[in-house]
């Protein structure tokens, strides 16, 4: 079987057909490594907390440090690929991610682990936007490229499930450090093979919007830190107010800079279309809801139900199956129904599923308290994700197709950080108040307010988790109404070609 030669941006023949399978393996391995990072680390959170002495309010930064760097620098990473060449930038991102993973596994303190997580997020932000684009650079149009996109999408979808199981296996049988070290051999393989099998794109003249990237990332970090600090110092604390105020000011400045930039990191014209702006807003909230759900469920399953890391990873598998079912249903409904008639019910279903999590008790079992809500939430999320992706890039100018999907991804990451910060603060406050109540009912005996290892007892922790679930459920319920009212796009004639986003 023969195939047209793949051509590089320089116009010369790059790779024969025999290397396309290896090229796809390299791109897919990189994508899998980035995607599974969130889920693989979530399973290890209780072990990390115990080993490094994280406080309940600081534990969320193991997740937030990564998502803030990833979301804040994602658009800059995509721009770097356009200007410097996608293969070159892809390899640089993978090497940064690999180095950060190695350092994360060596960390012996909170600060070192969080620094490694920031570096991991930066590496992912550099590598991830170029991974999909490299398929268009490397694979010829037609069936080879279509098959490559299908494998890439399947790998992205499998990332969460693989991460959950791998995280459980590594944490159970080796150490939590291996959830980071497992990336090292994969990253080195990808970085070594990539120059030999991937085509390079033609660098395009342009400028880096460094002021925009710095203002956006630092502003978000300051805002999230202020919100997190409120859990222990209160909303009226001077430093809490200062960090939140500085973060808000920097984000306003970011918007002003973007509106005046000739080559903005985030073109504000993308928000001028009603359906796209609505999709971005919903993605912000959905990102917070889904990341927070995994965070608190991981703590509940391992801390309250006392599941081992491996058993906890397997416990999440129904969620993956529900996502697949919901996404498949959405793809069948898209040609028949307008987006709001898919997204709004999807958000409503997800809201109901997470509301059921808010009814959990310390005595709940997996079957009675988690299984059905997990499946319901996943189906709703599957319906929502597919619809948001289409409405975010529908009717966008060709020059903006890639950046439109990039902004959607960034919104999900940023929303994850903001949502987790808010809900973690809520959970810590509710837990603290519950401990005070328990101590009071026990006649002021402090020992009554502590569980094994000095942590709050199961009743207090569960109260905090369920409060966070309820907050998340309310947010999704509101977004369901927003989707129904604000989305007015007609039925999708056909999904936007993925290739367009990569070109």
Q: How would you describe what is shown here?
A:
It is globular, with a radius of gyration of 22 Å. The chain has a two-stranded antiparallel ribbon with strand order 1-2. Mean pLDDT is 80; it is low at 1-18 and 493-503. The protein is built from 18 helices and two strands. 76% of the residues lie in helices and 1% in strands. The protein has 503 residues and is mainly α. It has helices at 20-52, 56-59, 61-84, 86-106, 110-138, 143-173, 178-181, 183-197, 210-233, 238-260, 274-304, 309-315, 317-333, 340-357, 366-393, 401-441, 458-486, 498-502, and strands spanning 6-7, 13-15. The two termini are 26 Å apart.
Structural class, by secondary structure, is mainly alpha
Helical proportion? over 70%
Beta-strand segment tally:
2
Shape assignment: globular
- The gyration radius over C-alpha positions equals 22 Å
State which percent range the strand residues make up: under 5%
Uncertain stretches of 5 or more adjacent residues? 1-18, 493-503
Strand order of the largest sheet: 1-2
